[in-house]
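Researcher: I need the complex structure. Ligand is zinc ion. Inputs:
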Amino acid sequence: MTVVEVMKHKDSKELVESSGNILAWYGDFDIDRTHRFISRCICGSIPRLEREGPGWIVKCQKCGNEGIGSKKRWQAVLNWNKAPVSEMPDWRELPLFNLDRFNSPGDARNYLKGVRKVLENRLAEAREKSKRPGKRPPGKKYVRNLIGYLAWCIYVQGVCKYWDKKSKENIRVG
Ligand SMILES: [Zn+2]
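Model: Output:
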């Protein structure tokens, strides 16, 4: 089944809700291992994720550039990747959400719109459920993962938008 077929599949809700399938759905992407996706520093060096107090920060050993620290590892990486001192990665080099199967950043953007919607719906549902008395609240890890996936999805949307615009500019110029 292709990703698009899975999206349309009537059981997609169940597929997304089991964490094992989240991996199959969103690619080789573990929210606790996002240091694999740390962008290059504008000085050309690859910075490192380091401990800082109770949390984490991404710092470049070579030039001293750093991102904004966070208690969450994935958030510290995201903060660095979004900072102007880090380089924009190639959208295809981010295997999150299985984007390497798409032919253009525009196609990837279309797909990500659906992914984002699913994540937003799941999160809203989980938050709603946790408020209802008498219902078993959704697992903390499940909610934590959803928040992380959504934040990364929005970031990757930005990366694809950047490359999509760039490719359209090149067509216009050429
Ligand atoms: Zn640097």
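Model: Summary of the prediction. Residues 140-173 form the longest helix (34 residues).
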